[in-house]
Design a protein that fits this description.
204 residues, alpha/beta, Spore Coat Polysaccharide Biosynthesis Protein SpsA, Chain A, eight-stranded mixed β-sheet, two-stranded antiparallel sheet, 19% strand
Length: 204
């Protein structure tokens, strides 16, 4: 058991977190990363969780993506296509041989313990399953699948469909339960109504 824990910890140290902030965010006025949640920019929440987990972090965005002042490496993904795969591919390319834990900037309730645990898992793709839905923007991707991701991006395959085709390790709700309520942890913010709902979950 101790040897397995040590292997997981070693894998976690090798990983980097890539917070994706290149989406359109049309329902939030085109500025998701800077949307205010309980007095803080939305993107600060996943960045803070990664810091608490002790994981190196980058931010991946379009050249025109509004961002608050952040002390992180910012990786600029291509302007086109506007597809979540573009951010995943860009993150793996800059990460070189390191596994990348991809995290959407609109997921403010995922805690550091879960991030650290996910970063230490093995498999080409490790993706949580919450409330019957895969969470490919809160998943671990290893560099060996980069060619498949590039091909999927060129073919405009949906991210979820591509992940399923890669025989992922799926983390079920029983494994997620020690880290909190999956229905809350993976609450994402796409609309003003979502902001109000998540603010309430934060106790605001």
């Amino acid at each position: 058991m101790r040897a397995r824990k040590n292997r997981n910890e070693q894998r976690a140290r090798e990983a980097i977190v890539a917070v994706l902030a290149g989406g359109r965010a049309s329902r939030l006025g085109g500025a998701k990363a800077t949307a205010e949640l309980a007095g803080r920019p939305l993107i600060e929440y996943p960045l803070s969780a990664a810091d608490q987990a002790g994981l190196a972090t980058i931010v991946v965005a379009k050249a025109d993506s509004p961002l608050p002042p952040i002390d992180r490496e910012i990786v600029i993904e291509p302007d086109l296509p506007r597809h979540p795969l573009a951010g995943v591919v860009a993150a793996l390319e800059v990460g070189r041989d390191r596994p990348v834990l991809v995290l959407g900037c609109d997921l403010p309730l995922i805690g550091p313990e879960l991030l650290r645990w996910l970063a230490g898992q093995s498999g080409p793709v490790v993706v949580p399953l919450a409330e019957g839905h895969l969470q490919p923007l809160a998943a671990l991707y290893r560099p060996e699948i980069l060619p498949a991701l590039r091909a999927g991006l060129e073919a405009a395959v949906s991210l979820k469909d591509l992940v399923v085709s890669l025989d992922p390790r799926i983390v079920g709700e029983e494994e997620l339960a020690p880290f909190g309520d999956p229905a809350e942890m993976f609450a994402n913010v796409n609309t003003p109504e979502d902001l109000r709902r998540v603010t309430a979950l934060l106790g605001g």
